[in-house]
Amino acid sequence: MSTNSREQSSLSRRGTTISWRATDGPLTQELVLKPGKFGLGQVPAALQPDAMTQMVCGFCSTGCSLNIHLRCGKAVNLTPSVDYPVNLGMACPKGWEALSVLDSADRGTTPLLRDGRGKLRPVGWHEAMETFCRRFQKIQALHGMESIAFLSTGQITTEEMALLGALTKFGMGMVDGDGNTRQCMATSVVAYKQAFGFDAPPYTYQDFEESDVIVLVGSNLCIAHPIMWQRVLNNPHGPEIIVVDPRRTETAMAATQHLALRPKSDLALLYGLANILIREDWIDRQYIESHTSGFNEFRGHVAEFAPDHVASVSGVDVKQLYKVATTIHEGRRVSFWWTMGVNQSYEGVRTAQAIINLALMTGNIGRPGTGANSITGQCNAMGSRLFSNTTNLLGGRDFANAKDRRNVADILSIDASCIPDRPSWSYNEIIEGILRDKIKGLWIIGTNTAHSWINQNTCHDILDRLDFLVVQDMYSTTETVRRADLFLPAAGWGEKDGTFINSERRIGLIKKIAQAPGQALADFSIFRLIAEHWGCGKMFADWSDPEAVFQKLKQISRGQPCDITGIRDYQMIEARGGIQWPFAETDHHTPREGNLENHRRLFEDGQFFHADGRAKFLFELPREMPESPNSHYPYLLLTGRGTAAQWHTQTRTAKSAVLQQLGPRQIYVEINPQDARVEGIRSSQDVIVESQRGRLRAKAFVTPTVQPGQVFIPMHYDATNKLTLAHFDPYSKQPSYKDCAVRVRCVESWDDV
Ligand SMILES: Nc1nc2c(c(=O)[nH]1)N[C@H]1C(S)=C(S)[C@@H](COP(=O)(O)OP(=O)(O)OC[C@H]3O[C@@H](n4cnc5c(=O)[nH]c(N)nc54)[C@H](O)[C@@H]3O)O[C@H]1N2
Ligand SMILES: Nc1nc2c(c(=O)[nH]1)N[C@H]1C(S)=C(S)[C@@H](COP(=O)(O)OP(=O)(O)OC[C@H]3O[C@@H](n4cnc5c(=O)[nH]c(N)nc54)[C@H](O)[C@@H]3O)O[C@H]1N2
Ligand code: SF4
Ligand SMILES: [Mo]
């Protein structure tokens, strides 16, 4: 297919119709995905299912439920569940194709160990485990206990995360271990903790349907969360949809107002809106008085952000600013949503809090159709935020707090001195730690660092300095596995049991409905095996299976805002169509029976998690963009999701023939027609894109959806992060993936640069 495509999809309970359009031509193809193992065609009679089970999807954080049709206990087919409160019978192309990506020639079937000649060779699990322990223990003996670390993921089960976090930090003497959720959700975590007193996204998906004004900041729902987008389209109130995004995305095209602001001018823009709302007295004084703190200081701060000034900084004119402020004022139920356009920024935390401030000052929180709502990314990013034992001690507790450590130690019957008394280094600090010779051994689980981390050329160099790199993944050919000394083959979604927590805090089940290939093992089993070989097996003797771990996590959550002690067992989760936290034993707010009624939001009583029960207004002056375009590198590079059919580094989605057809295979760069003319670039031509750190070759996609002076490259191609600049939000340490300076030239004229 042409790389010059725009995807459109419509989803229904009968099937998913996907069509895409060449920019310079008519509709070229249309494909209807019907239930079937490979998404297409009839199911052969021999494979007619004899049973069905339900489980949540393993790609994005929406957490759709899929009916898995089984024959003799094995999955042969799937359809989206109609009776699940999340997706109401819908699924996006990735969901429909979830089974086919499991079948692939490069699935890891046996551990691989790098030999003396530098080749990865198959070994048995015993040798793999002996090598794992010997090499890591040797590094610790030579360089100290803290010289080994791990990097994990938002794509394994909560129980696996908890076991990994406990094994490494309580059993193996590690202190530093972080997740790829740092690349994704760290900003929201810090923003919520500081503002609300706990990392607590307040919404339920029904809010998409209950709002009369929906404000989406840096969020391309149509592509990244297609079923949430369907929920928006289900909204019966004819809502005003305001999209704040420098690009005219698929979501922006469908909006009623699109603010095509200058990248990273969000903070000024949001303060400007607050300025107008205060100036016009369009605020909820009673709510502010009763439930918040810091408003007077905030009012003083935003006085500097007069509409004229904000218009000149953001490129959004005063009239449009007023229109948005008026819409927010007139809305009865206004919800604010944000994703990576906010989180992945060198001032992300304050930007997220500027959104939270708008919700608080207008009293748009704790009621149906309202909220300051961060949308998560990966299927279990929310599980990672609460139970991975990385940034927080298990259950949203604090490593630095002796009482929290004692509490967790008591529940787990371990010695409190086993628990580190400081939080982990963040992902970037671990990477820098390798450079500073502090970290000599690294274990990477379920993330593809050598593709997705920022500034890849440096990242590769740094990974290659390690004395020992272990990578645990479903596939044996990822960019990161290729650099490993030891590869451990993991089972994936559908090949193991456990729970995920979705964006609206809903705990859902995944189940084993297929056999992992060869000797591949569930991450859970690999962690247990390592505990045994390491010599700390006793500590985890009763962490026998996922549900046993779930019971422990329940106890750890007791009394926390994420208390889930009221969930009896997995069976109850299944019967209720997932359960949102909190759900305490003492909770009188028992979800009503009947799946579709099972939903709720936080802060309905106006009580937040700070000691004074109030939410805080937090703010700061905007910062300078560290690398803005200049005469040598005149374009600003934006990166992000390209199509609904591609998932991140494509280790999974590239394995589906159907999904492959739905997304461009080759890397492409979107460039505005005006800039293309200046550079002499035509659509589909090969161009070079270069930053100070690296260069790549891509197909040009000339399109007015990007503004002049900006270009966009999806993150799904391994070269994208050769260009990005390693800079971070100071509070959350989240990488700022969406702003660096590049130049673009036709391949032919490259020599004269
Ligand atoms: N198909 C698909 N779906 C996915 C994923 C996937 O890989 N593929 N990944 C999942 C994950 S882990 C995540 S985190 C989510 C991400 O979901 P999204 O955050 O919606 O996706 P992105 O494309 O990264 O970024 C959103 C938008 O931010 C805009 N943006 C860039 N700079 C700025 C800025 O300065 N201000 C504003 N306001 N906007 C800006 C970009 O133009 C982009 O359209 O998607 C999830 N869903
Ligand atoms: N330029 C740029 N870069 C970005 C972003 C951007 O917007 N722009 N977005 C960032 C964001 S938000 C994110 S979340 C990251 C994602 O970056 P990554 O986490 O690197 O992306 P994935 O391709 O999802 O990698 C997950 C890996 O886990 C493996 N895997 C899947 N399931 C399992 C399992 O059950 N067990 C094990 N052991 N392995 C499994 C997959 O095969 C894959 O190799 O990328 C970040 N990078
Ligand atoms: S929207 Fe997300 S959870 Fe739902 S089917 Fe698609 S990838 Fe799966
Ligand atoms: Mo993400």
Please report the number of helical segments. Answer: 25
| Domains (count) | 4
Kindly identify the CATH topology of the largest domain: Dimethylsulfoxide Reductase, domain 2
Helix share, percent:
25-40%
CATH architecture of the largest domain: 3-Layer(aba) Sandwich
Q: Which structural class fits the helix and strand makeup?
A: alpha/beta
- Report the principal-axis shape: globular
Main sheet record:
7 strands, mixed
Roughly what is the average pLDDT, rounded to an integer?
A: 93
Number of strands: 29
* Chemical compounds bound to the protein: ligand MGD, iron/sulfur cluster, molybdenum atom
Q: Segments where pLDDT lies below 50 for 5+ residues?
A: 1-41
CATH superfamily of the largest domain: Dimethylsulfoxide Reductase, domain 2
What distance separates the N and C termini? 32 Å
Strand content: 15-25%
Care to describe what's here?
Helix content is 29%, strand content 19%. The protein is globular and about 70 Å long. The protein is built from 25 helices and 29 strands. The chain has 4 domains: 7-102, ADC-like domains (N-terminal domain of TfIIb); 113-184 and 391-491 and 521-534, Rossmann fold, CATH 3.40.50; 186-374, 3-Layer(aba) Sandwich (Dimethylsulfoxide Reductase, domain 2), CATH 3.40.228; 635-752, Barwin-like endoglucanases (Beta Barrel), CATH 2.40.40. Residues 1-41 have low confidence and may be disordered. With 753 residues, it is of the alpha/beta class. The structure holds ligand MGD (2 copies), iron/sulfur cluster and molybdenum atom. One ligand MGD is lined by residues 60, 184, 217-220, 223-225, 244-247, 249, 263-264, 266, 339-341, 377-378, 638, 640-641, 644, 646-648, 738.
